[in-house]
Specification:
Blueprint lengths: L2 E3 L8 E3 L2 H4 L1 H25 L10 H28 L6 H23 L3 H21 L9 H7 L11 H4 L17
Antiparallel strand pairs: 1-2
Helix pairs in contact: 2-4, 3-4, 4-5
């Protein structure tokens, strides 16, 4: 497979020479993540099932707690969908590994929370994995490239050149002209 370097991408991010081969890393990353998510969920369910407190909990409380876990599961689904989308664009291998590990921990934490075994520890891992995804996102400089409009300019990591004013100040917008009284003694 022929690898080419795109000058618009950071160093270390390579794309494939042909369009059919260009999807190959994305397919591998996505398939690997999905397989890992299924294995992590199954392993976590089998480990936490004997420790489950669901049988010793009142039905109303159990429904409430499972409803709260479903809210966290929807947050996890959104994060996994973002990572799945992210793997469709050029990405460094280290970022792909970090995203995958954070997603595995996130899904494991949701399954653990569903079993209601050691809820505080499972919640810690849930929020730690979300923080991990945000930390990887902040170091991944190519996520917001290509966005159009003000969101793309705001979120992109392109640095302004020194001495160059942003368009808002160059056009005179946002700067209020204030007249000060003259201190001269001319009459």
């Amino acid at each position: 497979m022929l690898k080419t370097v795109n000058p618009n991408l950071p160093a270390g991010v390579a794309t494939s020479g042909s369009s059919a081969a260009g999807r190959h890393p994305a397919v591998l990353y996505r398939a690997g993540m999905l397989l890992g998510l299924v294995i992590a969920a199954a392993a976590t369910a089998s480990i936490t099932a004997p420790l489950s407190a669901a049988g010793r909990t009142e039905p109303e409380l159990l429904n409430l707690l499972h409803g709260m876990v479903l809210i966290k599961a929807s947050m996890a689904a959104a994060a996994v969908a973002f990572i799945f989308w992210r793997f469709g664009r050029p990405i460094e291998k280290s970022h792909a590994v970090c995203y995958t590990l954070a997603a595995l921990l996130l899904v494991s934490a949701v399954v653990w929370l569903w079993s209601l075994a050691s809820v505080p520890l499972a919640s810690f891992f849930f929020y730690a994995s979300l923080a991990g995804i945000v930390a990887v996102l902040r170091t991944d400089g190519t996520v917001f490239d290509g966005l159009q409009g003000s969101a793309g300019r705001f979120l992109s990591r392109q640095k302004r050149q020194p001495g160059r004013q942003c368009s808002r100040h160059r056009a005179g917008r946002g700067v209020r002209a204030v007249r000060t009284p003259s201190l001269s003694t001319e009459s």
